[in-house]
């Protein structure tokens, strides 16, 4: 079973690239972030024609998340992150797909910091940590997949000095991510590539892509029951090199269902 996450940075603009990636790499489940489209503008028909079933929650101009399945329909569990009924930003979607609980998330960027956007980022992170605590020991296999907007360590960025003031590298952001992992989650990409500089995001400016000046901010975290099934993890970097590409590349894991802890 292959599960992927991809910040598409505008699904209407990137739809041809998305469909090409889905056809070429054939994930079984794909979590999408930053749709930048209202619900009515989601390309459900185009995706269905290509063999994909979809669950989505859009938002005008910003945010938006979706879960795609190559098998049956994703079965919706929740459409928002618990903890703040007044939060109207479309950043979280949770569904059951082929026996796995898939949580697709788009954690706030938080820039500029300090300020209200960074405060919102940290408050959202605390809500995520609280909810994740109910999932990590679940009897069901669970994956938290998405754009976490956190560079966990200096090893996960080409040059930390250039991003010293960015919200993605702030001590509070990193400490929150570390506390999340400490619940018992496995960071799949780092688990299988502990000594490799792996990036998932390259800024559009100053030739970051051409210089491989990247950051690792897209993560797939596996709970205790799912972690034993991890076999492979990687990044489809070729997608970032396409014309009119997103500034992210799809990140994925391959799991052996028979190895899921009973």
From TrEMBL:
InterPro entries per the UniProt record, alphabetical: AP_endonuc_1, Endo/exonu/phosph_ase_sf, Endo/exonuclease/phosphatase, ExoIII-like
Cofactor(s) essential for the protein: Mg(2+); Mn(2+)
PANTHER family, per the entry: EXODEOXYRIBONUCLEASE III
Active site: 106, 147 (proton donor/acceptor), 248 (proton acceptor)
Residues carrying the site annotation Important for catalytic activity: 218
Protein name: Exodeoxyribonuclease III
UniProt keyword Hydrolase present: yes
Alphabetized UniProt keyword annotations: Hydrolase, Magnesium, Manganese, Metal-binding
Keyword Magnesium: yes
Pfam families reported for this sequence: Exo_endo_phos (PF03372)
Enzyme Commission no: 3.1.11.2
Protein family (similarity comment): Belongs to the DNA repair enzymes AP/ExoA family.
Swiss-Prot/TrEMBL GO biological process terms: DNA repair
Residue positions binding Mg(2+): 7, 34, 147, 149, 247-248
Residue ranges annotated for the Endonuclease/exonuclease/phosphatase domain, each copy included: 4-248
GO function term, MF aspect, one: double-stranded DNA 3'-5' DNA exonuclease activity
Cofactor, how bound (note): Probably binds two magnesium or manganese ions per subunit.
Positions marked as site (Transition state stabilizer): 149
Site (described: Interaction with DNA substrate): 248
């Amino acid at each position: 079973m292959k599960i992927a996450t991809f910040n598409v940075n505008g699904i209407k603009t990137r739809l041809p690239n998305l469909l090409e990636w889905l056809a070429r790499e054939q994930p079984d489940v794909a979590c999408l972030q930053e749709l930048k489209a209202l619900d009515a503008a989601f390309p459900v028909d185009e995706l269905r024609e290509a063999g994909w079933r979809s669950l989505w929650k859009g938002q005008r101009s910003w945010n938006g998340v979706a879960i795609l399945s190559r098998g049956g329909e994703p079965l919706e569990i929740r459409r928002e992150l618990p903890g703040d009924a007044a939060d109207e930003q479309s950043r979280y979607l949770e569904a059951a797909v082929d026996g796995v609980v898939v949580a697709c998330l788009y954690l706030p960027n938080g820039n500029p910091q300090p300020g209200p956007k960074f405060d919102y980022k940290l408050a959202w992170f605390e809500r995520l940590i609280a909810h994740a605590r109910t999932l990590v020991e679940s009897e069901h296999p669970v994956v938290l997949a998405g754009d976490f907007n956190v560079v966990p360590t200096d090893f996960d960025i080409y040059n930390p000095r250039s991003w010293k003031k960015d919200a993605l590298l702030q001590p509070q952001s990193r400490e929150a991510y570390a506390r999340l992992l400490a619940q018992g989650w496995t960071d799949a990409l780092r688990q299988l590539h502990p000594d490799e500089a792996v990036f998932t995001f390259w800024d559009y400016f100053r030739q970051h892509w051409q210089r491989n000046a990247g950051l690792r901010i897209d993560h797939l975290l596996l709970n205790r029951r799912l972690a034993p099934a991890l076999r492979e993890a990687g990044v489809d970097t070729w997608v970032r090199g396409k014309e009119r590409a997103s500034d992210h590349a799809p990140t994925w894991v391959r799991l052996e269902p028979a190895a899921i802890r009973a």
